[in-house]
Structure formats: C-alpha cells, structure tokens
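for ur thesis appendix - Lipoprotein. copy paste whatever u need, i formatted it the way the template wanted (i think)
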Amino acid sequence: MLKILLSLLTFISLMGCLESTTRNAGPLNDWRLSCSPDAGSVRQVSGGWDFSTGNNNRVGGIFDQRAEIVSDNFPINRAGDYLFTTTIAMTSPVNREFSIFSIHDGRRGCAPPMQLFVQPDGRMYVASAIKTGAGQSCIDQQLGGISPDRILRNGTEQDLRILVQFDGAGGFGLTVWLDGEVQITGRYRPPSDPNALVTDRFFFKHGVYSRTVFDYLLQSRGMQVVRVLNDA
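the 3d part is after this line
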C-alpha cells in the first residue's frame, strides 16, 4: 500500500509540475525516420505514428527487425529533465521481445546507454552497456529491475511516460511509468574506464526493434517530449 501511495504522489507531483512549468524540448522533440525502414513500416498519421512489421535494413548486428523514429542530437554536457510521453496500443498475435524506446549515443556493436525492452510476458526492463572497444567489446548491465506491470498486445491503449534527468556530465537518472504507476527507476553513469567510448551527444529512439521479424502494429498517439522545470 505504501509503494502504491508513493507512486501516486510522485505521479501527481510530476503532472502538477508539468502543467505550469514545461518548455519545448528542442532537439529531443524533433523526429525523423531512423535507419531507412521498409516502406510503410513507419507512418506518420493524424495524432501520432504507426509502426509495423519491417526488416532491419542496417548492415550488421543481430536484430532483424526495425521500425523506429529518431530525435535530433542533445549535447551530452547539457543538464535538464525531459519527459517523453505517449499513448501506445500494441497489437500482435505472438509474444516476442522488442525494444520500444532508447537513449542512444551513436555507438555500434553494443546496447546503447538505455534501451527499454518489452519481454514476451509484457513486463519491461532497461538494458544498458559500456562500450570498451571496437566491435562488440561491451560491459552489459541493467538499469533498475523488471516492471511489475505489463504492456499488452491486444490493442489496449496504455499511457507510457519516461522521465530522463540528464546531469550534464554524461549520465542520467531514469523513471518509467505505465498507466500512472512507476515501473522502473535507475541511473546511467558515464564510464570511468579510459578505454571506454566517450561521446558528445545523446538522442532518443522510439518504435519497435527486435531480434526476430514478427507481425505487429504499434500505434503511438500524442507523443511528445517536454522539458520539466524546477520551480524551486
């Protein structure tokens, strides 16, 4: 009961803050198609985006399916709190794992700093990695735990919110909500390894990215990114 109450209070506090202190998120709210998706697999429609079955047309890697959009770049040395919000409706006859949102820095061969996956059972987790060299030289990690609630695959509309709190030093805090309930919290810390990849930018990705190709339709409506300002 205490966990539910704290989750509700956090959500209400954040929503109240948003009503009075939001600003346009600049580059994180400017979106385009990512990595040359199959024709028709990513469609901008009235009120949002539709993502559907399509091949990953980027050479290399182990993920065969991709239908994503990508934001413009955000300087890694800029601090600020940014909230990604959308109403999703996933429809699929099969229960396959897929990524639905990520914070990337342009690396190849490893997971990005943050990648939100939906498991076959619908629960979510956040994968992350430190890239320590060429190719697949990676230190894999997980940010936070596994969500208690599930993303459905029967076309039900669900509210997805992701708060990213950039610290201006290459790291960020993370909170994921589903239908108003906190699901995952975690923190990405920049690598201390002198051989690790050091980048100068972050950007967001949204859509479906998966190891296998499967039939689905993901509808994303009212999607936006806003900057959350602190009144204090």
